[in-house]
Prior knowledge:
The chain has 19 helices and 15 strands. It is of the alpha/beta class. The longest helix has 32 residues, at 373-404.
Amino acid sequence: MSEMLLKITNMVRAEADHVSKTSLPLEVFPQQIQNIIFLLAHYENFNIEYVVAIILSVIATAIGNACHILVKGSWEISPSIYMMLIGRPGLGKTPPLNFLYKPIRERDRVNYQKYKEEYDTYRKELAERRNCKGEDCYSEMIDEPNLITTVVSDLTPEAMMRVHYNNPRGIVIVADEILALFNSVKRYSNKNNLIEDLLSAYSGQTLKTIRKSESIPILINNPCINLIGSLQTDLLSEVFCKSYKGNGLLDRFLFVYPENRMISKWVRSNHEETRPDIQSMWATIVNRIMDLPCPIDNTDHSIKPNVLRMNDEAEKYFFDWHNRFVDEANSIQDDLMMDSRRMKLDGNAARLALVFQIMKWAAGEGNMLCVDLDSVKSAIRMIDYYENTYQRIQDIIVSGNLETGTDDWLAYLNHQFTSKEALEIGKRMGMSRRSVYYALDNLCSLQHPVIIKVRHGVYEKKEPANTNALCTFALSDKSADQESICGSSDDSAKSAKCNQQIIG
């Protein structure tokens, strides 16, 4: 199919699949990739928004440390992306994960067979050496073979480090239920450093582990860890808790919550129809990327990636986009009002720009000389899409809190309060600026309003707030003092004093 015909075909498919009713900018993808996306939606009933996200994750994993992008100065980063697929049960998060990661898993299978053969040879040679006697015996040491794999699931931090050390190109953690991965932090006592390792790896910092079981420390100079997992909507509040928001982990994630959440019905296929070999089409693109060399310096086990720069117009566009966030940040006087997530968007945007550039090259629609303007614009449009998704998730969380009557945030506010006070309390509780205003609007517009708007920026409680909530919700280091002040919620003077301490 010619490129022009394929482009027209994809436009018709987009109209038929109602892609325009979502904010997904599908047109930024190469035509060959769009073709695969629509075929998977048609023949496999996969949700398009999930497919797009997983494709980005697979491409980023395939690139690994083979290619980096130079953002500015000496700051270069690998295309490591953390993604979370959110949706109701039955929407189909796992099937596209399995399908799209199959080419990389197939490489892992081949590497495993190779490892088994090498390990069998290693064991035989060890046995021969043990039985050898006399001057003809071997004196030099023989190295035990290492298993090289890319896709991992349930693992300890130590195992993750060992797997990554054996595969300097990079690894991906595919977690069918990402909450189980997070909960594994509590599984192995307080010495579990998984979250800290993920934060460090995302920033490109050296990872090091020293264990008694290891003869020498494991040192990874160029970490490249991709992470993707699924989560059911009703578990959002467990992930968006203060501990994960406070350490900045969630600020690194791109969230996928399809705007089209209808579960597709199964349609019987016409068995006489010639079905396209979608798996081969996809494997051809992924394998071309996986074949990119990733030179390793054996002296210190570091990698020497191909570093791509943005061309002049791409760099200008990227810098101007970033500087608009800087101007907004500089206009905010109160540090509590700063949105930490927005100031980290440049990292994910640069990663996606590299992914789009390599993706276009692999699909025969671009080169690898530099990261061009088209790739940067594509990345920024996808960032806008994922940030819109993030805000919708925040709305769901706040709405759920209001519906279940567990919105402790309101209990910390005085009878009459300003929007600034509401924002300050919300910030300390991990609520975004948009979530606070969403809550204020909803509480005012309920059938039996909880608060009323007295005037611009000033609100007043119409009904008693939930005074049973503890005021020690990790808002201050002086938790013991606050508990003694706020423990008796019947005492209005103590309650007011508590609120003042929290705000102050």
